[in-house]
Write a structure and sequence with these properties.
single chain; four-stranded antiparallel beta sheet; 13 helices; binds pyridoxal-5'-phosphate
Length: about 400
């Protein structure tokens, strides 16, 4: 008889996106001629950059010839991609990493979800609220979250991020072992300055806390004072793992490539207090459970680091960030209070007084045929907000804001 991991039974249904789909489908059935525009889901819409397509074609041709075909990739990535990352994403910002501190993967969702494999079950985990759900659900599957009641996990420490604290989480006032931080943030679109992030590094060094830093939206940063990597701050190599992804940076959501940095200075402890290298444990985990990202995909990822590649992906990011500006300015023009949209492709908008996240979601769908994401779906502190994404087509974004401007509430 096979027994299940009963932690899975504690998980609530993935209610958010299925509930959105249900409401949208029912609206479409009742209004078959309506033109629904989605500013809801966080997926890209622009085609891949020409350099990426070219690299893919070339790599496919290599695979067709006996002399150049490739079998299993190195589990932690080809050196041509690791070197490009080291030089362009880190050395250029004054961060020196060794090649064996970078682990290429099939994306940041897998890595943020799998990273807990090498960490003990009794760690106390803190997350910002609202939050990217993967951090919580993966810890719940491992048995670190306790029980789910009234929208909260009993053993997770929630750090609210609201306008009252400028979306800056307070340092935990209880004992915590692991903290997940995502900056620029999904869903709020907000960031931490260098000084604010330094506060977290100092706290982590002092209290032996491990920081999981998700920098999936790093490429969207436009302001000077916002760190691109947590390792730009002194001491971070001793306390932080950093996750990056080509998904939003270069439209790889369908190709799948990302990477995780686990510095060799980063240590964690056994129950006797003896120190162990997390770099070593993560290598052991990846070489056992992962057989590498496809050669053609790694070639495609490396192509974005050429000067032409950098130019092309920047054009796409600028396109999305122009959408963000259009959404932000137009919502502000009708008196709405909005956050984000400057260093991230998300706009976090306050619902009008008296409207819950789902109330306002329904009003927007009924009156304007615009699909958004109710903020409460990302956590309790998201109540009273909706998230709009800038990943849409320009004409849809323009049409959407015109419709929202005509909203009568
Ligand atoms: C989109 C996103 C990712 C990227 O996930 P991939 O698996 O690399 O596509 C990671 N973290 C957050 C917060 C995201 O929104």
């Amino acid at each position: 008889m096979a027994f299940i991991n009963e932690n899975f039974l504690k998980l609530p249904g993935s209610y958010l996106f299925s509930e959105i789909a249900k409401r949208v489908n029912s609206y479409k059935q009742q209004n078959p001629d309506s033109e629904v525009i989605s500013l809801g889901i966080g997926d890209v819409t622009r085609p891949l950059a020409p350099v990426v397509i070219e690299a893919l074609h070339q790599a496919v041709d290599e695979m067709s010839r006996e002399e150049t075909m490739r079998g299993y990739a190195p589990e932690t990535g080809y050196s041509f991609l690791i070197e490009a990352i080291r030089k362009n994403d880190y050395a250029s910002r004054g961060v020196d990493l060794d090649s064996d501190e970078i682990f290429i993967s099939d994306g940041a969702k897998s890595d943020t979800g799998n990273i807990g494999d090498m960490l003990g079950i009794r760690n106390v985990v803190a997350v910002t609220d609202p939050v990217y759900p993967v951090y919580i659900d993966s810890n719940a599957m491992a048995g670190r979250a306790g029980c789910f009641r009234d929208g909260l996990w009993s053993d997770i420490i929630y750090l609210p991020c609201t306008p009252q604290n400028n979306f800056t989480p307070e340092l935990p006032d209880k004992k915590v072992d692991i903290v997940y931080l995502c900056y620029p943030n999904n869903p709020t679109g907000t960031t931490l300055t260098k000084d604010q992030l330094k506060g977290w590094i100092d706290y982590a060094l002092k209290n032996k806390v491990l920081l999981m830093f998700d920098a999936a939206y790093e490429a969207f940063i436009s302001e000077e004072d916002v760190p691109h990597s947590i390792y730009e701050i002194e001491g971070a190599k001793q306390v932080a793992i950093e996750f990056r992804s080509f998904s939003k940076t270069a439209g790889f959501t369908g190709l799948r490539c990302g990477y995780t940095v686990v510095p060799k200075d980063l240590l964690a402890f056994d129950s006797y207090g003896k120190k162990y290298s997390l770099n070593h444990l993560w290598r052991r985990r990846q070489t056992t459970k992962f057989n590498g990202t496809a050669y053609i995909v790694q070639k495609a990822a490396a192509a974005i680091y050429s000067s032409e590649g950098k130019k092309q992906i920047k054009e796409t990011i600028d396109y999305y960030m122009d959408n963000a500006r259009i959404i932000k300015q137009n919502l502000e023009a009708i008196g709405m209070t909005v956050y984000g949209g400057i260093n991230a492709p998300y706009i976090w908008a306050e619902t009008p007084a008296g409207f819950s996240s789902w109330d306002f979601f329904d009003v927007l769908l009924d009156q304007t045929q615009i699909v958004t994401t109710p903020g409460v779906g990302f956590g309790k502190s998201g109540e009273g907000f909706i998230r709009l994404t800038a990943f849409g087509k320009r004409e849809n974004t323009l049409e959407a804001v015109e419709r929202i401007k005509s909203l009568k509430i």
